[in-house]
Write a structure and sequence with these properties.
Two copies of one chain form a homodimer. In chain A, the strands form four sheets. Chain A has a six-stranded mixed β-sheet with strand order 2-1-3-8-7-6, with helices on both faces. Chain A folds into three domains: about 170 residues, MoaB/Mog-like domain (Molybdenum Cofactor Biosythetic Enzyme, Chain A, 3-Layer(aba) Sandwich), CATH 3.40.980.10; about 80 residues, Alpha-Beta Plaits; about 150 residues, Alpha-Beta Complex (Maf protein), CATH 3.90.950. In chain A, helix 11 runs parallel beside helix 16. Chain A is of the alpha/beta class. Chain A contains 16 helices and 17 strands.
Chain lengths: ~425, ~425
């Protein structure tokens, strides 16, 4: 079964907003075996919406539109779909009561503008949106189903997850698609390709491999669209096992896992605790770690020591070391890691200090120079890196590298 | 002049990667008056690429493809374009020397796989990519120009910014488009719409308004595609001025500015310094602040006190207060803010403490309850919020609200 996504919104076309809805919808469809054949982004114009609907590929059974359902004048999707499928806008009491209830939870009452959102095309079934004022809509024409969803990612995710995926699973037949993605850290794409060249050549027909590089990590995705999904899964699992043997601990996890989730699981298993002392990463590592629900069980906190004075007073780094070797040095980074470990009374601590850029570099320590240390119960390890000139990438790469060094140290730890 | 973007990659179609390249390209094209009429995302399949190229709208002069230029087997864009435009793959010494140079900077030498990236279609001009091994390509057919760019955002951004935009500005004529976006914080979309309803009705023909809501803030974009861009800019500026008068300090900035950038500018102007004490935001506020280049001038650091012990030992919060009122309380949040201000010797400090979720709520303090304080030289303010049940959104909304409270306090400050 084949799907298409049409994202409606000038803000996406002009690049002001990044379209995350399409990625979410595609991921969820994929997980139940539905392949997305095409995505389009078009303007908030009736003509563009109508043309995109006319141009849907002939094999497509599911069409999703996102955006243009808000209460304001620039939102024209509802009116356009009403015209396209024929009918009139009708007041829906159930949808209105939901709006009233939402406003009550914020101690407010709906205005006339908000009430207008309860008028829906007579040709659709509403897809009730309990967490927002824009109702989802379900149209049917021949064998094809059209779902119109709001542009707000939070609401679209809610509707897809709780309403549409369950409806599809119950009412429509599914195709077969199997993916498995292995996550690697610290080895560049072309080096990985060389390491696994023989294995890649041995992949059977019907199984494909994709390299998905992003700053600091490369994902390796195995896919099969074969008819017999049980057989395909077996083949993919066998190949994934071989890949794990070749790459060893370069692989840190699978599928949608993040490095910080993998670390959280290991820390809980080993009943160990963690803290960080961050200079160039500025709190980003703590943010990644605390993005994981339940992280308060093992994460005690961080000292972001952006100034030398904070390094000295809060982490007890020797001023002599800072003066003699600079804040970006092995001497200082080791004291920062040990300082955090002691101040937060944790088993492990991560420390980072570097020149994130765009300015602040010297000949000896150019922009992108970063020291990272991991202190544990048995030892401290410290490594120097040269990333690049881009501040955002330096912060991200430093954080991922630090988490990866920690992951390897935790593996060695016996509680 | 009209452009289209074709993003090539199964990883985008299946939702594993969010397409940020299109947004970047569109923003830069827009800034020189070129409108993006459509974007498409298609599979890594020769047939899909050929069909997308055939389907380009007749008015389109610029076509951008991204992705599929890597050194590995799943990258087929180069081969497909070579077939589509006719010709053969030819070794390009200049492109190869660039690859050799790149590898040297990492103390490595290119492999056979890397060398293969120096073979380019004879029908294209290379667009030299100094920061990556995949060369950009420029094809021409009739009046239409095609640019093929790598999927790695960092490299595509480099090529668009440094090579393609300058080339277009020099060689092709431009159309007219004027945008101006005002950024608001803390007022929901429908309330904003009511506040500015009369003003919105007074907008002259040819100027349109769009509401762009995202968690915690709403952007208001004024656009004109009129022929006379000087006249359009005048009209837009007049309307923006009126809007600023109506909304006052609800507006915190314009266009691509972030709250943390605006705060950075104010702090520098007033020669004031900042620190944070973060519990529920877990370092995210420090991360936002330190994302801004030059932030070390005014940001001294943060204590992320995820445990009560850290709140007591590092921020000197009274344990009695934690026991009597809980860590999420006015008493504790005020002590946290003042604690950070003193430990980091700063003029201002932000503190957050809340229940980010998904668990940890009580009847009295449900998930989403957050206390935020801002301590300054003259006073401490503290406010309680109820956000929602989603951890990620709670962290984001708390951070934006805290930055907005700080922004208003800095405005009042005379150094």
């Amino acid at each position: 079964m084949q799907a298409e996504i049409i994202a409606i919104g000038d803000e996406i076309l002009i690049g002001q907003t990044v379209d995350t809805n399409s990625a979410f919808i595609a991921t969820r469809l994929n997980s139940i075996g539905i392949k997305v054949a095409q995505k389009r982004v078009i303007a908030d114009e009736a003509g563009a919406i109508e043309r995109a609907l006319d141009d849907v590929l002939s094999d497509t059974v599911l069409v999703f539109t996102t955006g243009g359902l808000g209460p304001t004048k620039d939102d024209i999707t509802k009116k356009t779909l009403n015209g396209y499928f024929g009918g009139e806008l009708v007041f829906n009491e159930k949808v209105y009561q939901n709006i009233v209830k939402l406003f009550r939870s914020f101690n407010r009452t709906p205005s006339e503008i908000n009430r207008s959102q309860a008028f829906l095309p007579s040709s659709c079934k509403p897809v009730l949106n309990k967490i927002g004022t824009a109702s989802g809509m379900h149209f049917k024409q021949g064998k094809r189903h059209y779902f119109s969803l709001p542009g707000v990612p939070y609401e679209t995710e809610y509707l897809v997850e709780n309403k549409i995926i369950p409806w599809i699973s119950e009412n429509l037949q599914k195709g077969n698609v199997v993916h498995r993605t292995l996550l690697t850290q610290g080895v560049p794409e072309s080096e990985l390709a060389e390491k696994i060249a023989d294995w890649e050549n041995s992949l059977p027909l019907g199984i494909s491999l994709a390299y998905l590089p992003s700053p600091g990590l490369v994902r390796l995705r195995l896919s099969s669209y074969e008819e017999d999904s049980k057989e395909a899964l077996k083949k993919i699992n066998r190949k994934a096992k071989e890949l794990r043997e070749i790459l060893g601990d370069i692989i840190f996890g699978e599928n949608a896992q993040t490095l910080e989730e993998v670390i959280g699981i290991s820390l809980k298993q080993k009943k160990a605790t963690l803290s960080t002392a961050e200079s160039c990463t500025g709190g980003y590592i703590a943010h990644l770690i605390t993005s994981v629900p339940g992280s308060s069980e093992y994460f005690m906190g961080s000292i972001v020591s952006y100034s030398n004075r904070a390094k000295k007073e809060l982490l007890e780094v020797n001023m002599e070391n800072i003066v003699a070797h600079g804040a970006v040095s092995q001497e200082v980074i080791e004291q920062m890691a040990e300082g955090a470990r002691q101040k937060f009374h944790t088993d492990f601590a991560i420390a980072t200090s570097g020149i994130a850029g765009p300015t602040g570099g010297t000949d000896e320590k150019p922009v992108g120079t970063v020291w990272i240390a991991v202190a544990g119960p048995q030892r401290i390890i410290a490594r120097q890196f040269r990333f690049g000139k881009n501040r955002e990438r330096n912060i991200r790469k430093s954080a991922l590298m630090a988490l990866d060094m920690l992951r390897r140290e935790i593996q060695k730890f016996q509680s």
